[in-house]
Specification:
By secondary structure, the chain is α/β, with parallel strands linked by helices. It is built from nine helices and seven strands; from the N terminus they run E-H-E-H-E-H-E-H-E-H-H-E-H-H-H-E. It has helices spanning 13-24, 37-49, 64-78, 102-127, 145-148, 155-174, 194-197, 203-207, 219-230; strands at 4-7, 28-33, 54-58, 83-86, 136-141, 180-187, 241-244. Keywords: Oxidoreductase. This is SDR family oxidoreductase.
Length: 248
């Protein structure tokens, strides 16, 4: 029986590449997106054209009722869950902390942190041995920003990813006995659209000379690390982080 994977925020960038690679490795793909239906449908079409199977489900993961709908739709389609990738995340314009509104900070944490908590809670009830599941694997998409703090840019985003790091460590210990592994990747300086959301679309190229490998990274490289962590090759790996930031 094919395994089922749910990837949040997967209509583009790292999430989309992870969805494509997961399908190529034999997963049924449940692709979550928030607003870009056209992009999400395009990823699913590629999956189906390659002989795979998948479904795109719209949901704002910062809202519990929409997360419930996401999971119930997935249940009806596939009837199981084996892997979760908490990839969905948002970034706002670069500014210092004193310029940030309370609404902005709240929005960042509701999506980047609360959304991952909501999805993970529901995933555990489907995968944990004590709930009748067969185990599984969770990969959280953090960021190198959790280490650097992103001063003068987006401390709120960096802090939300720091919370994801702590979440990864604690959860990996909490549910290890339930047959579920929990790990994370920390991408940095990756060519994705998220930099445009921060008002600096060319950010990776501007910082390229400060990266030890002297180049930016690509979503496919992050996707490869995610799928390795989900795989049986990483069967004894939990509570770990893979840095994907060119040595920075």
């Amino acid at each position: 029986m094919k395994k089922v994977i749910l990837i949040t925020g997967a209509s583009r960038g790292i999430g989309a590449e992870a969805a494509l690679l997961a399908s190529r490795k034999g997963y049924h793909v449940c692709l979550n997106y928030c607003s870009n239906k056209e992009a999400a449908d395009s990823v699913i079409k590629t999956i189906e054209d390659e002989g795979g199977s998948g479904i795109a489900i719209q949901a704002d993961i910062s809202k519990e009722d929409e997360v419930d709908l996401l999971f119930s739709t997935m249940d009806r389609k596939f009837g199981r869950l084996d892997a979760l990738v908490n990839n969905a995340g948002i970034l706002e314009s670069q500014m210092e902390l004193t310029e940030m509104s309370a609404a902005r900070i709240k929005k960042i944490f509701e999506t980047n942190v609360f959304g991952s908590f909501y999805c993970t809670q529901r995933a555990i009830t489907r995968m944990a041995l004590k709930h009748g599941g067969t185990g599984g694997s969770i990969v959280n998409v953090s960021s190198v920003a959790s280490r650097t703090g992103s001063p003068f840019e987006y401390i709120d985003y960096a802090s939300s990813k720091g919370a994801i790091d702590t979440f990864t460590i604690g959860l990996s210990k909490e549910i290890a006995s339930q047959g579920i592994r929990v790990n994370a990747v920390r991408p940095g300086f990756i060519y994705t659209d998220i930099h445009a959301c921060g008002g600096d679309a060319d950010r990776v190229d501007k910082l390229r000379d400060h990266i030890p490998m002297k180049r930016g990274g690509y979503p496919e490289e992050v996707a490869a690390a995610i799928l390795w962590l989900l795989s049986e090759e990483a069967s004894y790996v939990s509570g770990s982080f893979i840095e994907i930031a060119g040595g920075r």
